[in-house]
Amino acid sequence: MTANRPLMFLLLAAGTVVTLSMGIRHGFGFFLPPMTQSFGWTRETFAFALGLQNLVWGLAQPFSGALADRHGPGRVLLAGGVLYAAGLALMTLSSSGVLLSGSAGVLIGLALSCTTYSVVFSVIVRAVAPEFRSRAMGLTAAAGSFGQFIMVPIERGLIDGLGWMPALLVLAVTAGLLLPLAAPLEKAYRRAPALPVLQGSMLRGMRDTFAMAWQQRSFRLLMAGYFVCGFQVVFVGVHLPAYLRDHGLSGEVASLALALIGLFNIGGTYVAGHLGSSRPKPMLLAGIYLLRSIVVTAFILAPLTPWSVALFAAAMGFLWLSTVPLTNGVLVSLFGVRHLGMLSGAVFFSHQVGSFLGVWLGGLLYDRTGSYDVVWWLTVLLGLLAAAANLPVREQPVPAVATQS
């Protein structure tokens, strides 16, 4: 993909935003053991707060995306950086489950809605030529994986070296780096070809656009598949360290596993974005969900060793966020770029409902049964259903919505 210098700066800035935003949150699973031990919580208490984070993120995402569509990403990203830093800092004072749900749940959930894919992609699809969009989104999604690869071992090292409370304060300062990155994305948004100005109430426009999109069977099936994506990745991301610890494996193995997921996802998301430029995206999505079910099944049935964990992490990592550029690419094919921020946020809400259930059920069923087995097998079943849901999706433009490609 060729690119001029402004476009390269845009992709660098967008990638850095996603690297920081996604990278920090991927290490939250390491705070589960020390925080639950310090405050005497059950795992469900911690899991509920992170589940709420994902749910708030999903609920707020259509609105953050719509604001970026209408007014540009600058102020949205600035608000997200402030909320992220505040949420991390207030986690250190969250001595009860209610306070943790407010800081790690509500504040960081709102922050993520302002600093992740829907807002960033709303700029990229306007600034990048149609033939390169899928690859550009793949590169940006890969940056989120790079953030996981870099930040996960850093967070574990901070907890081991400083303790969980100072580690959160260091991460709060790191989240503040999101603030200066708002400027280059806002500049790219203003330089992109102008689209028709949206008139009238934002809420009414969101309602009308979503109603038209909901009439499309492909949109509904895409939402169903993304629900499963959220369930799978957040359950694994949050509960895998505790699962490995329960089975006698060290924290180093868990840290390596999450880092490998991030490392291999760099390649997976880029490959998915590249393939999405020339091959049917729904077929690729169906293949990804099917492969996830196969990988999880093999992991459950194989003896649990550091080598099996590493192989699982590498395979799952390659499939981790590869759904992101493909799902957003289908949305652009269906509806164009005018409302991508909002519609991407609407589909992402389904993803986050799945995320909430994945992380919460993981904690709840563990507390009730003493095992994660039921949730592991549920991820397998849901993956098969998601593969079947994506096969009928069609990438045919919808004239009533796709007024600008």
From TrEMBL:
The chain crosses the membrane at residues 45-64, 76-100, 106-129, 136-152, 164-183, 221-241, 253-272, 284-304, 310-335, 342-362, 374-393. InterPro entries: MFS, MFS_dom, MFS_trans_sf, Proton-linked_MCT. Signal peptide: none annotated. Keywords: Membrane, Transmembrane, Transmembrane helix. Residues 7-398 form the Major facilitator superfamily (MFS) profile domain. Pfam families: MFS_1. Coiled coil: none annotated. It comes from the Bacteria. This is MFS transporter. It comes from Vogesella fluminis. The lineage of its organism: Bacteria, Pseudomonadati, Pseudomonadota, Betaproteobacteria, Neisseriales.
